[in-house]
Amino acid sequence: MGSSLSTPKNDPQVEAHIQRLVAENPVIAFTKVTCPYCASTKLILKQKRVQHVCIDVDITSGGSALHHTLKQMTGQRTVPCIFINGQRIGGNSELRALKKSGELDKMLESVPRTADHVG
Ligand SMILES: N[C@@H](CCC(=O)N[C@@H](CS)C(=O)NCC(=O)O)C(=O)O
């Protein structure tokens, strides 16, 4: 019989789903709508005008399993959890540091741009 403190095992299907999301989206962040760091990350990505996907795990259906599995897979306990070109860069602090050093622009060079609004 398992103890109540044991960590539930990852669902392999959820794990595969996360791997697919990261592989298919050059820029993807797992976020929460209530999180100010996530709001900052969303703003930076919007300002960079790169196509990106943000999955708000607190309002997405199945988001809590997604977040649980993501934490197990990455060891990162907080959101945002950001991936660029398949590589986990960390959270908002790391994103801001990359932006400040100019490294972020280099990482985003190959990422498709968002369409500019006309008018
Ligand atoms: N240094 C981190 C701070 C992120 C952080 O503290 N996020 C909070 C939400 S605002 C969090 O993930 N708390 C745990 C949770 O919501 O599960 C960053 O810059 O991304």
From TrEMBL:
Residues 27-89 form the Glutaredoxin domain. GO terms for biological process: cellular response to oxidative stress. GO terms for cellular component: cytoplasm. GO terms for molecular function: glutathione disulfide oxidoreductase activity. Gene3D superfamilies: Glutaredoxin. It holds the Pfam family Glutaredoxin. This is Glutaredoxin domain-containing protein.
